[in-house]
């Protein structure tokens, strides 16, 4: 199974940018649908980016145009470039991976998360 470790979170001002990274081990990320999922206190989890094995990306309207998901398969690393950050983006961000259908609900492998705080 793939193991995922996120980094790059932190505190940023409104309108700022951050790039999250997720290093995978144990398997090649090329096999997986990869994504980023966030959870804020008192809220349901929200998928914010997905990247399927053919390179297609999916974003919810809440982040479209502000977040970009990408990967470097050779490095086994997934990225999430975030810009135009808003207080509503404050959450714990998890890197996730799944085999089969590329939906956030089918991403069963999660990292431990990295906190993003926007104020």
Task: Describe the structure in your own words.
It is a single chain. This protein has 119 residues and is mostly beta strands. The protein has strands at residues 3-7, 10-12, 18-25, 33-39, 46-51, 57-58, 67-72, 77-82, 91-98, 109-110, 114-118. A hairpin with a 4-residue loop joins strand 7 (67-72) and strand 8 (77-82). It is globular, with a radius of gyration of 13 Å.
Short structural summary:
The protein is mostly beta strands. It has strands spanning 3-7, 10-12, 18-25, 33-39, 46-51, 57-58, 67-72, 77-82, 91-98, 109-110, 114-118. Helices cover 0% and strands 49% of the residues.
**Principal-axis shape:** globular
Fraction of helical residues: under 10%
Tally of helical segments: 0
- Uncertain residue segments: none
Mean pLDDT: 96
Order of helices and strands: EEEEEEEEEEE
Distance between the amino and carboxyl termini: 37 Å
> Strand count, sense and closure of the main sheet?
7 strands, mixed
Our estimate of the beta-strand percent is over 45%
Structural class: mainly beta
- The tally of strands reads 11
- The radius of gyration over CA amounts to 13 Å
């Amino acid at each position: 199974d793939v193991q995922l470790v996120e980094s790059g979170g932190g505190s940023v001002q409104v309108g700022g940018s951050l790039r999250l990274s997720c290093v995978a081990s144990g398997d090649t990320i090329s096999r997986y649908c990869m994504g980023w999922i966030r959870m804020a206190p008192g809220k349901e989890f929200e998928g914010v980016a997905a990247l399927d094995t053919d390179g297609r990306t999916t974003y919810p309207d809440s982040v479209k145009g502000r977040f970009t998901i990408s990967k470097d398969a050779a490095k086994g690393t997934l990225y999430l470039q975030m810009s135009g950050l808003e207080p509503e983006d404050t959450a714990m961000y998890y890197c996730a991976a799944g085999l089969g259908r590329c939906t956030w609900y089918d991403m069963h492998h999660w990292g431990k998360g990295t906190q993003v705080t926007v104020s």
